What we know:
Oligomer: heterodimer
CATH topology of the largest domain in chain B: ABC transporter involved in vitamin B12 uptake, BtuC
Strand content of chain A: under 5%
CATH architecture of the largest domain in chain B: Orthogonal Bundle
Order of helices and strands of chain A: HHHHEEHHHHHHH
Largest sheet of chain A: 2 strands, antiparallel
Number of strands of chain B: 8
Structural class of chain B: mainly alpha
Strand order of the largest sheet of chain B: 5-6-4-3-8-7
Low-confidence stretches of chain A: none
Shape of chain A: globular
Radius of gyration of chain B: 32 Å
Radius of gyration of chain A: 19 Å
Amino acid sequence: MEALSTLAQLIASGLLTGLVFALVAVGLTLIYGVMDVVNFAHGEFLMLAMYATFGLALLGLGPLVGLPLVVIALLLFGIVVYRLFIRRLLAGPPEATVFGTFGLLVLLQGLAQALFSSDFLTIANRPLQGVVRAGPIALEQATIVEGLGALVLTAVLFAFVEYTETGRAMRAVAEDRVAATLMGIDVQGVNAAAFGIGSACVGAAGALLMLSYPVYPTAGAQFALTAFVVVALGGFGSIHGALLGALIVGMLEVLGGFYLAPELKMVPVYVAYLAIVLLRPQGLLGRR
Amino acid sequence: MRGHLIALAAIAAVVVVAAFALHDAVVLDLLFTLLLYAVLGQSWNWISGYAGNVSFGHAIFFACGAYASALCVTHGLSPWLAFPAGALAAALLALLAGFPTLALRGHYFSIATIAVAALVDAFVRNVPGLGGASGFELPIASGWAALQFPQKGPYVLLALALFVAVQAATLALERSRLGYYLRALRANHAAAASVGIGERRWKLIAFVWCGVMAAGAGVLYAQYTLFVDPPSTLSLAVSIDIALIGVVGGIGTLWGPAAGALVYVALAKGVALEIGGAGKGYDLVIYGAIICAIAALRPHGIVGTVVDAMRRRRGALAAPAAAIAACVVVVSLPAPLRAAGDEPIDVALAARAIADRDAECRSDGGRLWGVSLCGPLAFVDPATRAVVANGASSALRTSAREGVFTGTLPGDVAAATGVATIGGERWALVAWPLPVDPVARRVAVMRASWHRVQGEIGLAAQPAENAQLDTADGRYWLEMEWRAFARAVVVPADRRAGLVGDALSFRAMRLQRFPESARSENAALLNEGLAEDTGIELTTVASDRAIRVVEALARGRERASVARTFADASGPAYGALLDAAMPGWRRHVTGRTELAALLAEAYHVRPSPAQALARASAYDDGSLRFSEAQRALHPSENAASKPAAPKAASPEAAARSSATAAPRTALPTPAPGPGSAVPTAAPLPFPTVPASVALPPSAFRSPSPSPSPSASPKP
């Protein structure tokens, strides 16, 4: 009984953790699906969003109030980065996007360190510090809001990709870039929109995460690393795969952290990844 | 072919001359790093460049060599054995990791290498005998048999030999069947498979060679730094450095990794040297910007660009020639950055102390004082003025090494523990050697870090001497105060207030005799006292706090003279007791705060000399009685100016105290020198910390559960 209620507790927090991973990973996989770019600076975008949330909190706007502003800021930032930089990388060989985005990672981490120092910053008077109990499960309010907020935003993104004109254009470009061009789709515009929306996802995630995490120059790196595994596990370019992968990874991480040891929490995640890609080299829901 | 060989020979000749002719540790360090990274980059280039499987876990092979070296040396075997052992381990690991993963495509393979590296990291940290998270420190030796040298020249020659071998092997690869097959697989694996090229088999062969090459670099690295642990050899950051070197130079090219290593060393290290800024991130900004620029403007890497230019003109010689020229530039470039040749500071230990401090101050994050304690920190050898710093500084003429920076202290800065403004920045300086005990080491470093920022907190660093405390009377009431403090920190919270009241009453008694010293005692508490308290708070888990406080009090008692050091003993007690009753008190401390008054307020006590006299018998068990005789001989008016002569305790008192004293308090009291007029005290029966009264972990982090009744003075 004791063991069962512990398990219920772990599964609940694993699911909520997974939903936040999903929001980060969906942005990453959207960008990959449309333009075949793995944005290695994705975690640094998340870090910028967290600093932006922190800045707004200093002005008196809490993370949830500031969230729309951060989302818009990251959307614009993503579009600018695409127009100025990523577009040029796409003209080069495939490895150019790898080390170009790595360069961006190093640059943004350095900038954050230069501007904000390496200190851990936490917003003052964080809201939602209480604990909610339901039967054997006790969850922090902040964790619940993070998980459910991420779920809502992921659902909004699904709907956007599924039902809007831009979303359809993105799927068309992802399917076949040449054919999409021939159909009169502005591929550059779609790419920019996808990069912007992918960045907006981490904008939202960053604002939510400030409810319970501190921000520092490398704050995004760990989330991004997890997101890479999530995206690969689900299949590169598959948004549904990213959601599925995120829930699996969130669950494994929480269970591993509890039953093995906190510092070994990623071990089951990596073992599961290796096992899955050995059986399905394209990930769970990816296309060959 | 001939052009490449000539270029290789020319580079070798230049480096050999440099290794013998130059004695500048900074330049040779850069050269060694350059050659080592060129080897690692080339190893990566085989699987990721020629074969097209981008690896982000290449550090595992490097670690095989480094750990083989550490294991050989610590088991009494020759480090030369580490070359075959490390290579064999890396080859087996390559087979084990490569067999399932090499068939994966694109990013699926890259993520798989991250996963494999993370699993290897977890393995090394958790399997007994591999050094765990703290790794290995290799014992110091000297000579070719031990593969260790006091100068850097031989290391450079060894790295050069490895580099030449790896370049020659790559030249052979480019013309071998393996090389053609790999490039065919990279260009179009389906087409290659259709003509019968077995993807897994040929890539596995290449992967094994990768492992062997990187392991060789790992052995040299371990013998050079004499320190091997998971973060420095196995982390994702190391793997990514290797990959960036391969890619910046131009992947799938013979000279690409060397060019990439040159850019990496010149930028990452050179920028840090020139720009300085002690970990402020400017070096990362410039390095990142240059990688971005290369990616956007010259996406085929440096060598790709040079080769393009050559093709349009003539001959393949210019690319290697450019590399030679670059080598020469590196050798001559840092000449103005010359540092002292010898390094008496143990860099690995200093790096560990820096890493400890950074972790502690980061987890503090300004919690205690509202300002971060992170920032410029350097260890300084008073004999040679050599420094090991946590960030680059042009004023210190630093060069990067093992994640830290070695340099020399400018002539106008005192080579001692303290705070100094160097090159426009405030540095926390800690004199080498550090205390041997790891806890004392952490506290000492954190103290210096606090002194660096105490001005920001509003607490001036003013030296205070309290000679009255070395008088018999002063010492007596100080030791009574410490006894009460020591009891107060170990008892349950509800009994604390009375003991705090006693301690502060003993202090009041003392100040009644030396009224003018209230100010200087408080100044010392606000300076050294808070420094020591901060050091203990940030380096100790809450459950150990009481023990550390009692130890600090015991150290004070063992000192012959406490005129300058009493606050080191009292400060931690004040801090721990205030933390327990008045969380967040530090934020209200200013230069005008009187700590004793703050403590009295926190525990609602009104200390008085009358209470001191009434309660003295509860603390003075006879071992302090000698001071009463002293008081009779030397009236207190004279005590401050004419301290009493040393006097030993009675035999009974000594016997009694040794029976009750904790082992750590039974250390001999330092004997005063001949002619010294400082009174010494016999060892006191300090309360030990029995397990039964161990405090709950949160005892010194949480507010006192209930306001304690005020201990009223008795008539």
